[in-house]
Amino acid sequence: MKVLVTGATGPFGRAVCRRLVTAGHDVTAMARNRPQTLVDGVAFTAGDVRDARAVTDAVSGCDAVVHLAWVVAPLKTEAATEEINLGGTRNVLDVMAATGCQRLVFSSSVLAYGAVPGHPPMLTETDERRPPREHFYAAHKKQAEDLIDRSGVDAVIVRAGIIAGRDVDNTIFRFFSSPALPVPDPDRHQQFVHTDDVARFTAEAVSHTHTGAVNITGAGTLTMREIAQIIARPLIRVPERALRTAIGAAWKLGVSELAPGEIGGLLYMPIVDTTRLHDEWGFTCAWSSRAALEDMARAAHGVVSLGKKTVTLPWRVSPGSTEHVGPLRAILLRRTYADEVNRVVRDIEQLVSEGRAEEGPTAAARLQLILDMAEHSTLLARIGDQARLPAHLVARAIQAGAVAKEGISP
């Protein structure tokens, strides 16, 4: 079969292309920019899914489309995000109808069910989908699924759990590679699926006869406590309201890719049933949830992320290492924390000068979360006083936070 893969140049897209080529398909990858390296045997066409002409040129002559092109971390406006996610999906569907291409495999997510409280313990493919509107990623996945259902094409909608693996680099990976994990409920469960399993299933779905939605996750679930142990990060219990406020502040200040509407994905990730995957599709994931996360932990082992900033550490001094922790590690960690503290303190000082009282508590919550993460970090404790934040900086931060929390007077 001749197969077009949109959004094919990321780690997951490359994995799908590799599987398709191995299966003997004629594969073309479509993306805005040509990557430095392509999977052997894959052709490339430059194009943006928002451009109907480019999509037409790419889809023409194809037997199937694997639609992966998507904005994961939301852009600053919903319209800009929607233009790619939903506008791009409409273009693909319109061109498929016009050219007679009838097989579509769409990369969706269990988040299409909605990361909200009150779901059944195990969601099936026929359960209600109710993602919050403010969670663009999830809401757009649900809307894209609806567009596909109405289009009449033979479609497979792949609802994947949290994708993990050593090649994954996404918002979830950066959250889990933070110096500490701030969570309201340490006993809440999560499911993971390895990128290799999702890629294998996606490639197989291209030539399969089944259609419709299908959940895919690895076997088993993990609590946040277990996750923290696996990725060697301390767990900090933070009230949900405080966490939402802090993440909102980080997003507003431009220091985090995690938008306020996405926090539900960390707090109330849907847990799904995979009976259809096993019984109807005859597919079994090779990686359990634990094994998939353990593989991602190998990549997170030498990385510390704080907001959009990531520090790669030498293996001898990476999180969880039993080796001696030296001055270099101390400098790297202290600089990461200090830079973020200074950034938020400066923002608070600007708010004070401009009299923007309503934004004070949000900035204070963000600052307090950073200080808490530094205080509870087992990595810093292992290093000792040499890596702790300077006393004068902590004092300045505490003073700024107190002013902001009480409200700033014009």
Automatic annotation (TrEMBL):
Pfam families (UniProt xref): Epimerase (PF01370)
Domain of life of the organism encoding this protein: Bacteria
SUPFAM superfamilies: NAD(P)-binding Rossmann-fold domains (SSF51735)
GO annotations of cellular component type: cytoplasm
GO molecular-function term, one example from the UniProt record: aldehyde dehydrogenase (NAD+) activity
Domain NAD-dependent epimerase/dehydratase positions: 3-216
Protein name: NAD-dependent epimerase/dehydratase domain-containing protein
Organism in which the protein naturally occurs: Mycobacterium [tuberculosis] TKK-01-0051
